[in-house]
Amino acid sequence: MADSSRKNRDFTEALKRYEQMIKNNTSEFFDLDVFEQIIEHYLELLRFRDALNVCQTALEQYPYSTELMMHQVRILTSVGEYGNALQVAEKAEQINPLDFDILFAKGSLLSAMHRKEEALEYFHKALPFAEDESEVYYCLGFTHHSFGELEPAIEYYKRAIRHNIEHEDAVYELVACLKEAGNLRDELPFFERVVDKDPYSAQGWFNLGVAFEYLDEFEKSAQAYEYATLIDDQFSSAFFNMGNAFMNMKEYRQALNAYIKTLDTEDPTAEVYCHIGAAAEHLKDYKVAIRNYRRALKIDPNYDEALYGIGLCLFKENLYSEAIHYLKKATDVYPQYALYWSTLGEAEKAMGNTTSALEAFEKAELYEHDNHKMWINWADIYHQNGETEEAIRILESGADAFPKKAELHYRIVAYNLIIGDLKQAEHFLRAGLKLNYDLHKDLLNFFTTEEQKDIIRNVIRAIDDEKK
Prior knowledge:
Residues 1-28 form a coiled coil. The chain is an all-alpha fold. The protein has helices at residues 2-24, 32-44, 48-61, 66-78, 82-95, 100-112, 116-126, 133-146, 150-163, 168-181, 188-197, 202-214, 218-231, 236-248, 252-265, 270-282, 286-299, 304-316, 320-333, 338-350, 354-366, 373-384, 388-401, 406-419, 422-435, 440-446, 450-467.
């Protein structure tokens, strides 16, 4: 404890000395490791330019330090200055042409610049000097994958996993690549052989769970993750993924329990709290859901999923004004996500804010929302304002986007009957009946008079007679 305290004190003094030197435009000598500590300090604060300035100052004192050059490459890459990063990497390579870190960093940089052949060349150059070959194989696979070359990508991902079964990035990329190639199911034996050979391999069961998850076989996936946690009760990723599998199975109580166990095995994250909130929300325990969404926001105040989650819970509790506050915040953080806009539109509509609701639904359409009910809610606002023809136009656009959603067709039928266009009503009624015959009962409930209902019944009767 005393050593740690002294080191912290020494670093604080060194940082003050460095910043005073920069401020006064003077020159002082620092040990190389002190420069590196100052670089890491600025990077933790996301002060990339300051970190780059430290690199430059340090290189004036240590002009042949490839370690400093690699820091410089890493930072320049982070800020998107690939050309400058490559120049520094090439200078470092001239000084030490057989250094793994330099060769690997240059390969990664060339891959980011989409210079495939050169990237592959440098990864292969780095391979003989690698302590962990799995990372090099992973990057070879990722580079091939980025260019749509699935066969070599699959082979390199497999090599990465064979060298390091715990390389989870390689597992996820391999499964995604196999699914893209259409042969994930055929490759299940690759994952099954591991647990057949070693039934007590927690990582093997986890990897098999990932494969089943990508095949949408969530029950088998949950079982595999559960085996992983029984072998290793501190396997946080397995608990978390098991929660996801249960969510997909709509087993929300079990999902909630799995997510809570994730918190017992790793430091809390906004993501885990958000998933706990989502599970509680599905269980209609909105207080618990909101509490966990708020915990997520304490960790990351701009976590859009948590902002949306609170807004959605408040909306479901009919607290529309409060819901709008959080939903607007979610759209501020992630304005391209249509779901946020459509839910905001529903909340504004519930508050009677017609103009704001229409603006939100228009934003949702702009970002290609995948919820067909948004179109119904949007059209309903125009219908309530006496603009039924505009409502029909919106619903027809929705029907084009979701041609298999009978609800849209039936609502178009209703609005056409209201404006007296029987021909169009019959056209969309026929389409709706083909998609979902039983749903026409909801259409009958839409009308209040028997006269209107009789029109629907007569058309349906005529269509049924045609089939005989």
